[in-house]
Design brief:
575 residues; alpha+beta; 4-stranded mixed beta sheet; 3-stranded antiparallel beta sheet
Length: 575
């Protein structure tokens, strides 16, 4: 029987194209670094989706190669997305390079690493933005082209940030914590302002390192609220977390609000429950500023509001400032800017008041000729107050008296410790203020000024002798005030003095039992002091100290002060 042959079925072009498409597969040789003469170095790998795909390493995605094989990949390599991925991949080191065997660094590498750490120190110390490192690295290589270490210097913003946050900060914080564990220290706290959405609590420690005392940062947490319980909870948590004994806390410093140093339920109240011997007198500079504010508040006119109103009238108005400049030239006063009085800046009232006095002729002329001077509003209000003779006279009184208080304030804003001279300086300031309106004989005859009845008119100066300054006396004669206005002026001056002194006696720590003994820390009085203050201080702050050994050291210092100059200097500036 003859066989029957079946002729082959001819395929359509579409079917042939489909077969060719499904026939392309990923090839192993494409992965070789030498493929196409290294044109695609390490870009191609086998895809987890199977042989119908190849994996693009820079793009981290699979590319289908069934249509045209290698030409599918080549087409992908020409896209802008692939080029961007290749550019980004060159910014990072391959993972396997991070696990190379450790080799001894070359001298240039070691120097470059040291320079990077020192640069990070510099950025942190001067509070510079880390972005400055992006420009500094180019500057270094340009300035020192012949230095191999300069060319190896590579510390941009990311590396700078990580070195500061993950290396330097933990190391220094641990040093401070260790010092707090081993010896006595003081805690200083303050809260951030209300400008941010969350308030931070800054916790500082005053520690003794070598022969110097240092103020160092401990922590900056975010308390649950601004209440004393939450603030103290953050401090207590930090102390417990780092095993710092409360017995080592000998001092506490903060502002003078009731939350911090109030008599009941304050942060200081809770701290004394943990460490009964802790010492605190508040911020003496803040207290001095509160005394000035009390005196200004007692004046018949709101002098501080007047100064603020003038500043904000010209603030952010170039037209008004330009017009005012013409009046400065017309009245022949120096062309100076109007300053802003900020009540929380302790020394601003004196500077702003003096500047306003120097600009008063131009200010009077400007506001008197302003088009809105007759309309209700700021212009009319400012013009009325500045033409009131009491305004100029009271500004002159402030110019006379405020330097005395501000000098006291400046003394205790110094970097070195002034605690040994605090009580004498407080007494000196109080006496200087008293003799301005109380007769000298009564002030000199009173040892304890808290017992002096300074409100008694019989003890006070008459209007003729009360201290207001020569400039103010001359202005009084120039203005030729009527008797009623003149009497009102002198009553205002007395009210200012009385309010300042009353606030001082209430706020300043004249009753503190420790302050009289702290004069031993003033090296100028070393030879005249007895051993008693040393014993009192040791009992208050270091009850475990061997008093006999302490006495031997004190006698040695008395007999041979030149042998131990470092002790004297240390007492002077660092305790």
């Amino acid at each position: 029987m003859a066989s029957c042959s079946v002729p082959p079925v001819k395929k359509t072009k579409l079917e042939e194209k489909g077969n060719r498409g499904t026939g392309r597969r990923h090839r192993k040789e494409w992965e070789s670094p030498s493929f196409e003469k290294g044109k695609y170095p390490g870009w191609i790998k086998a895809s987890p989706e199977g042989p119908s795909h190849s994996f693009c390493v820079p793009c981290r995605k699979s590319i289908k190669v069934t249509a045209s094989g290698i030409f599918d990949l080549k087409s992908h390599f020409t896209t802008q997305g692939h080029k961007n991925c290749v550019a980004k991949s060159k910014m990072y080191r391959p993972m396997d390079e991070h696990f190379q065997p450790v080799r001894e660094p070359t001298p240039s590498k070691s120097n470059a690493s040291l320079a990077e750490v020192m640069f990070c120190h510099f950025v942190a110390e001067h509070n510079l933005p880390p972005s400055v490192a992006d420009h500094f690295i180019d500057l270094v290589s340009t300035l020192f082209p012949d230095s191999k270490s300069a060319q190896d210097f590579a510390c941009q913003r990311t590396k700078t940030t990580m070195i500061i946050k993950e290396s330097l900060a933990p190391a220094y914080t641990e040093q401070v914590i260790e010092a707090c564990r081993k010896g006595p220290f003081s805690i200083m706290v303050d809260e951030s302002n209300d400008k941010n959405t969350e308030k931070r609590l800054v916790i500082l420690a005053r520690i003794f390192e070598g022969e110097m005392s240092q103020t160092r940062l401990l922590d900056m947490p975010i308390p649950a609220s601004g209440k004393a319980t939450d603030i103290f909870a953050e401090i207590d948590n930090f102390m417990g977390l780092h095993n710092i004994p409360w017995e080592n806390v000998v001092g506490f410093a903060s502002d003078n609000c009731n939350t911090m140093v109030g008599r009941d339920n304050s942060v200081f109240f809770r701290l004394k429950e943990k460490s009964p011997n802790v010492f605190s007198i508040g911020c003496i500079c803040h207290l001095a500023n509160l005394c000035v504010k009390a005196g200004v508040k007692a004046l018949p006119m709101k002098l501080d509001d007047f100064l603020v109103d003038i500043f904000y009238f010209f603030h952010n108005s170039s037209k008004r400032l330009t017009d005012f400049k013409e009046f400065q030239q017309f009245t022949e006063v120096e062309e100076e800017k109007i300053l802003k009085h900020c009540p929380t800046r302790w020394l601003s009232l004196e500077k702003v008041g003096n500047r306003t006095l120097s600009q008063l002729p131009a200010l009077k002329s400007y506001f008197a000729s302003h088009e809105d001077v007759e309309k209700p509003g700021k212009v009319k209000s400012i013009n009325k107050r500045q033409h009131d003779p009491l305004t100029e006279l009271l500004l002159l009184v402030m110019k006379f008296i405020l330097p005395i208080i501000n000098n006291f304030n400046t003394i205790f804003q110094a970097d070195e410790s002034k605690i040994g001279s605090l009580l004498p300086e407080m007494d000196r300031l109080l006496r200087k203020l008293l003799v301005k309106f109380v007769q000298m004989k009564y002030v000199k005859a009173t040892n304890d000024l808290r017992r002096l009845d300074f409100l008694d008119s019989d003890l006070q100066h008459s209007d003729e002798f009360i201290a207001i300054g020569l400039e103010t006396r001359e202005a009084l004669q120039t203005h030729e005030l009527d008797p009623g206005t003149e009497q009102k002026f002198f009553e205002a001056v007395r009210g200012f003095y009385e309010a300042v002194v009353r606030k001082m006696l209430y706020k300043f720590p004249f009753d503190d039992k420790i302050l009289p003994h702290l004069s031993v820390l003033d090296p100028r009085k070393t030879e005249s002091l007895t051993y008693g203050p040393i014993v009192e201080l040791a009992a208050a702050f270091c009850p475990t100290v061997d008093t006999e050994e302490l006495k031997e050291e004190w006698e040695d210092l008395q007999l041979h002060p030149s042998i131990h100059p470092s002790i004297v200097y240390r007492f002077s500036g660092d305790i």
